[in-house]
Amino acid sequence: MPQQKKFLPAAYKAMYLSDTIQVVEFLDKFANNSLVTAVYKSRGGTLVKLYGSPEISGFFFHLKEKIIIPVKNLSAFPKEPLSRLEEGLRSNFFGKITAFSVMKGYGKVVKVETENLDLIIPLFAGKSVVVSDKSGKEIWRDKKDNGLNLLEKPMKDFPLTFENPLFWESWFVEKSDKEREEEKKKKLEEKRNKILSAINIVKNDIKKHEENLAKFSDFAALLKANLWKFDSSEHKNSVLVSDFENNEKEITLDPAKTLLQNMERFFANIKKAKNGIENSGKRLSDLMEELEKISTLSELPEEHKSVFKQKKKQNEHIPYHEFHAANGRVFLVGKEEKDNDELTIKVALPHDLWFHAKDYHGSHVIMRMKKGEEPKQKDILTACALAILYSKAKKGRCGEVWYTARKNVTKRKGMAAGLVNFKNAKAIYITDAKLPEDLVKI
């Protein structure tokens, strides 16, 4: 057998017609009489799951990549949010497969037949995926177009890329993983550069605020010490005053204001500069924290591995109790008031859910969530029970619990340990808080 190529030639971004024919003939041989059991989106394309074939578990097509491949390992194709294409096929394409073929007269167009329906898949840009009945009557299409046209001349023939059609699966998974990792690194680098740019802007703001604080503090102190020499209701462009070393110094004033009003303006500018330093300092701290998280995420691909949840040393304090449910859901419960702050502000991610027993001192509870995931009611009730049982409400085992996305929880400088502000919260009243038997404390 000839040595297999690892990647397609750089000049070609998709399968050749010969490759498509080879794969479709393989599917026709080994997937005939298989039953369509599911359709879902994965890796940017569409996976059709089959039952009844000893050789494969389904087939996958990707319109942008212009490929169709047999699939043995379904675990390599995780489910993604459905697009209109998958939703339409779920509703309109079903039954037992009777044939696979390539409609070569139209180019790389694959026809998948069941007992009652035909699925037409054009593997090139701009044409719609179509489901029709056996008479040719259209039942569904994923977008509007003018239909398929016969080729004026046949597509150019190229030698096969792989001798074994099953090699396409490992090739595509490897290619997809590599592209996604590169895209992830690119986005992280873009975000990192954006944060670095913001840090420079904030540092410059702090420098300006510090310069203003020094300038206006000097002006205000000198004018206040020398105000007795002048009529405070006068309007002047500037005044000459003695500094604290008896040197003469000129202070530029706003002639539209009196000397007293100018002095008050200097003190107002002092307050403004102090607030600016404080707010910019907080912003700088947040940006540095975010930069540290981004740097860690670029090395640790798992979503919830952050700089604040690395492997702990045996003697290192962990600010939370950790619980795992049978369905894999993870709950984190703050140990003490200061631990609540670290758990909520530093450990939790923006899309995690935050819980707290209303009107009672108690632990913050974090329910780990994937971005864009909808929480299940069972998990919400478990988190509420943890919030009640790890608060002053545990004696009665009942009470109202607030919950909201972590991104809605903030803490101002100077707030007492464990205290936070939050918005867009929902409330649930728990009457008999109990933890599920399958919940395990780690």
Which descriptors would you attach to this protein?
6 helices, Helix Hairpins, 3 domains, 33% helix, alpha+beta, 442 residues
Topology:
Layout: H1 17-30, E1 35-42, E2 45-51, E3 58-62, E4 67-71, H2 84-92, E5 95-102, E6 109-114, E7 117-122, E8 130-133, E9 138-141, H3 167-226, E10 238-242, E11 248-252, H4 259-297, E12 320-324, E13 330-334, H5 337-347, E14 353-357, E15 365-367, H6 377-389, E16 399-405, E17 409-410, E18 421-422, E19 426-430, E20 440-441
Antiparallel strand pairs: 1-2, 1-5, 2-3, 3-4, 5-6, 6-7, 7-8, 8-9, 10-11, 12-13, 12-20, 13-15, 14-15, 14-16, 16-19, 17-18
What is the distance, rounded to the nearest whole angstrom, between the alpha carbons of the first and last residues? Answer: 52 Å
Which residues sit in consecutive blocks of at least 5 with pLDDT less than 50? 1-12, 299-315
- CATH fold call of the largest domain: ibrinogen binding protein from staphylococcus aureus fold
SS strand fraction: 15-25%
Helix content: 25-40%
Which series of helices and strands comes N to C? HEEEEHEEEEEHEEHEEHEEHEEEEE
